[in-house]
Amino acid sequence: MTSATDTTTGEAGTGGSFGPLKQIDAGLLNVGYVEVGPADGPAALLLHGWPYDIHSYADAAPLLAARGYRVIVPYVRGHGTTRFRANDVVRNGQQAVLAVDSLALLDALDIDAAIVAGFDWGARSADIVAALWPERCRGLVSVSGYLIGSQAAGQSPLPPEAELQWWYQYYFATERGEAGYRKYRRDFSRLIWRLASPKWNFDDATFDRTAAAFENPDHVEIVIYNYRWRLGLADGEAEYAELEKRLAEAPVITVPTITLEGDANGAPHPQPSAYAAKFTGRYSHRTLEGGIGHNLPQEAPEAFAQAVVDVDTH
Question: Which 3 state secondary structure label does DSSP give 140?
């Protein structure tokens, strides 16, 4: 394992845009996604978090496409044009489900294995794919490192200052919080952006482009379920119980991995030293300097894309 500080992050995202969206049936979902790069190139699956969308990769994806990668960037369930294929499906946001969605998309696209990369919710899903299905993951790039958790871990109290950082999780645990997010989801999300990336000077157009993804009819239910599940306030579905049992054991990740962290990440996140031992394959960590916050792929697209390329050479 090596650790490095990268000071050559490149400029923050300049507002790049994607071509036309595609839609494909994949598991329980009809997934909206963008695809750039040669169809026969090595696949790179880039997963976004909350409250973000595919445009976190609007600048990084073309950089990878120019290097010959087939880049797939899907809307996670509850975002953008991704929809449930049946009305009676539980609007489930637990961690295992989001990772299973990623596998279903790879299956639908006939991709045997991909470099899987992400941040926030997307990093957790990428970690899970790498841990439980390493044969599907040629390499892993994970912002903020090892994010696999469990409901049992969520029951353990944190020191008060750490609990304060999770204020929105406790807000979402209440009916008032659900109603408040439904009513003020754009204002709420803009606040999270400012807190999580305090040195990122995004403009209104950049935020508005992403905020359109939160108008998905299932968005609020998925977000609320995700955070309530973490605290044990929402039951997971029985069909995912065995997967969650395996994840609760905090499995190691054996595939080649690069973890990234911004030096100005204002969101709750572990220190690199806390998770280094969870990566038992070839591994390195990079801390990006220059005021890089939580939305690292959009704030430092060149460094993120380079990590994907580099992990491929591992």
Answer: strand
